[in-house]
Design brief:
The protein has about 90 residues and is an all-alpha fold. The protein is about 70% helix and about 0% strand.
Length: about 90
């Protein structure tokens, strides 16, 4: 069991709750608020469709030890990030 990954996973789930449910979009760095049409939808998409699955994947990987664990995490992060990035650019930006 990897306690470092477990702590990171719990932190990601906490951020998911704050951004996705409580709509605390100030936690999201690097976006221009003037260009976003719907901040509530931005919080839902990033919180529930990026941070939550990522946090759950990291928590599961903290309990299970297998070869190529780092590669699986990097691919999962890349796929989730690309999907959310494309959705935000097509639906939420002016």
């Amino acid at each position: 069991m990897d306690y470092g990954l477990l702590i990171i996973g719990i932190a990601l789930v906490l951020v998911s709750y704050l951004v996705g449910i409580k709509k605390q979009t100030w936690l999201l760095a690097g976006f221009n608020e003037k260009n976003i049409k719907n901040k509530s939808l931005l919080g839902t998409v990033t919180g529930l469709f990026f941070f939550l699955p990522l946090g759950l994947i990291v928590i599961v990987n903290s309990f299970i030890d297998y070869p190529q664990e780092g590669t699986v995490l990097v691919v999962a992060i890349f796929v989730l990030l690309t999907t959310v990035y494309v959705f935000i650019n097509r639906r939420l930006l002016d």
